[in-house]
Write a structure and sequence with these properties.
heterodimer, A: mainly alpha, MetI-like fold, 2 domains, 0% strand, B: alpha/beta, six-stranded mixed beta sheet
């Protein structure tokens, strides 16, 4: 390795460092650079080798792992490995300190172990199926509709989290301003939306939408979709109230000396909010925000009551159809639904953890026991 | 007219009258020390001078510009008059270089590379050229206070106000911070220092002001104040602390 070991930049008398920015020319140069290809090819090689091992295992043990025998599986694994390797290599080369923080075994070990465990879980279930303990055929037949529910959930979550965070951020900020009107409105907002049961909010929003659009000339199909999304917005407003309190706590946790120091060098109030207060407030707010995100993901299940076919909605429908086919069907379906909720939540909380790592301040964190 | 001067400054917090008509003059290149008992309003006076607190009455002039004129932006005033706090108040989420750069970037709107250059220069000036990437939480109190001084210096202020810069430090750190301040005084930086370090006030300052109960009781050269105090109150104060 030619670059200096991680962390040594603190010990060397530093020269003015230029901040590296992304540019096409540098990307091209980096792509032609052998040092980038080595980790990329290594990653791809490992991925292909792993796929090959899985294939052997699948062939030897269980006929069910048919997808491993597809050429596409090899191809996809290799391409993903290559891309991952390039990303890791690029970051390690040009942002070594960020890479040292992000690409740690501690952070990604759980992801690797998790995917391996999932793979072996599937293999195990297939084995149970062959022994007629677990009806693989039934479980498999439920996967496609449940997956469609998963995508719908993903879509809803992708709207609710930015909406809730954006709104919560504004309301939380408003609660800390000097303006009595803003503070009053924000406090009223939080009091109202925190006290309402989310299911009532969802019903209210979609029913009010449906009733007020009645006779407006908009076709039924569009009205139906509008009412569905009104429910999503209602849930977003609900979580925004919680997130507003989290943001407010973060802002209040920044000592007054910080803004005073920003004032003393002549930074305007609004700028000092953005460059001094919010970065520090955000660092404090991130863990509880992750909490709230994971909580609202599960709350999206309430949307099934107004006709969303997301994970839970699909689950209810499938269960009601399953009794005549297989007595344990509902158990199988809810296990699959629960697993996908886990995947969804884990994706989001893991991302929040990575962001948390980026906001870490050396020397400020409590010493680990 | 003096470099920085205040006439008839008054400030009350509720019913508590903290400043009761203060006149103060700081000449160009002068180091002024303000001494006096706790709670006498010294810090409030400093904060009034750079408009961190707006005085109830009175005028402040910097090179015959009237700072208390409501048309003058306080942000502009604070770019002209630097301040160093008792508790450092470094931005905890930024490393030392970025702490110093922040004012340049966001108040003076200097380009990033220029600001970085200036920050490195100022950090070297206070003897922290080897701590450019360190975060405040990784530094000792004395080092943090030197970063705070560099942060004030980076704005090229016409005056720097020090609000008890060594009160939160251990004896060794006090020494390193005072050395930097003495160096600045030697370089003819105009500064006003609220301090309880009588040794520093005696040796480095050009003018000493004794402040009590919101008023200036006595002012003069260090030897005037320390060796031949005129008022009874000053003499009592000196007797207590110089024993």
């Amino acid at each position: 390795m030619t670059e200096a070991p991680i962390g040594s930049s603190r010990d060397v008398p530093a020269l003015p460092k230029k901040r590296r920015r992304f540019s096409g020319r540098r990307l091209l140069r980096a792509l032609l650079d052998l040092k980038l290809w080595v980790p990329a090819l290594a990653a791809a090689g490992i991925a292909v080798a792993a796929a090959f091992v899985f294939l052997l295992v699948g062939l030897a043990g269980f006929y069910g792992a048919a997808w491993l025998r597809n050429y596409e599986a090899f191809l996809v694994t290799a391409v993903i490995g290559l891309a991952a390797g390039l990303v890791v290599g690029w970051t390690r080369r040009y942002h070594p300190r960020a890479a040292a923080r992000i690409f740690t075994w501690k952070a990604w070990g759980s992801v690797i172990v998790g995917s391996l465990a999932t793979y072996w879980g599937i293999v195990f279930l297939i084995g149970l199926g062959r022994l007629h303990v677990y009806r693989l055929a039934f479980a498999e037949s439920q996967v496609a509709p449940i997956l469609s529910g998963f995508y719908t959930s993903l879509e809803v979550v992708a709207v609710i989290i930015p909406l809730g965070f954006g709104l919560g951020f504004l309301v939380g900020w408003a609660r800390t301003t000097k303006s009595l009107i803003l503070r009053g409105l924000a406090a009223y907002y939080v009091d109202f939306f925190r006290s309402m049961p989310p299911i009532a909010l969802i019903f209210f929003a979609s029913l009010i939408g449906a009733l007020s659009l009645k006779g407006s000339g908009i076709d039924q199909f569009t009205v139906y979709h509008i009412t569905l999304w009104l429910g999503v917005v209602a849930l977003g407003f609900h979580t925004a109230a919680y997130q507003a309190e989290i943001i407010r706590a973060g802002i209040l946790s920044v000592p007054a000396g910080q803004t005073e120091a920003a004032d003393a060098v002549g930074i305007s109030k609004i700028r000092s909010m953005f460059v001094v207060v919010l970065p520090q407030a955000f660092r404090i707010s991130l863990p509880p925000l992750g909490n709230e995100f994971s909580s609202v993901i599960k709350d999206t299940s309430l949307l099934s009551v107004i006709g969303w076919f997301e994970l839970s909605g699909v689950g209810f429908t499938l269960v009601s159809e399953s009794y005549s086919v297989y007595l344990w069907g509902s158990v199988v379906i809810w296990i699959e639904v629960a697993m996908l909720y886990f995947v969804l939540t884990y994706l989001v909380t893991r991302t929040v953890r990575v962001i948390e790592d980026l906001f870490k301040v050396p020397g400020l964190e409590v010493a680990r026991l | 007219m003096s470099h920085l001067s205040a006439r008839g400054l008054r400030k009350s917090f509720g019913t508590l009258e903290v400043l009761r008509g203060v006149d103060i003059d700081i000449e160009l290149g002068e180091a002024l020390c303000i001494i006096g008992p706790s709670g006498s309003g010294k810090s409030t006076l400093l904060r009034c001078l750079n408009l961190l607190i707006r005085p109830d009455a009175g005028e402040i002039y910097l090179d015959s510009v009237k700072l208390t004129n409501p048309k003058i932006r306080p942000e502009w005033v604070r770019q002209q008059i630097g301040m160093v706090f008792q508790s450092f108040n470094l931005f905890t989420h930024l490393n030392t270089t970025k702490n110093v750069m922040l004012g340049l970037r966001h108040a003076k709107k200097v380009s990033r590379s220029k600001a970085r250059e200036k920050a490195i220069f100022e950090l070297n000036r206070v003897g922290l050229g080897d701590k450019l990437d360190a975060f405040p939480a990784q530094l000792s109190g004395g080092q943090q206070q030197r970063v705070a001084i560099a942060r004030a210096l980076a704005m090229d202020p016409k005056v720097i106000l020090f609000d008890e810069p060594t009160s939160a430090l251990d004896p060794e750190s006090i020494h390193e911070v005072l050395a930097v301040m003495a160096q600045l005084a030697h370089e003819k930086m105009t500064m006003a220092v609220v301090t309880h370090e009588m040794g520093f006030a005696r040796e480095v300052s050009d003018q000493v002001v004794f402040f009590d109960a919101g008023k200036i009781l006595e002012s003069g050269t260090p030897s005037d104040i320390f060796d031949h105090p005129k008022s009874e109150r000053t003499r009592a104060f000196m007797d207590k602390i110089l024993r």
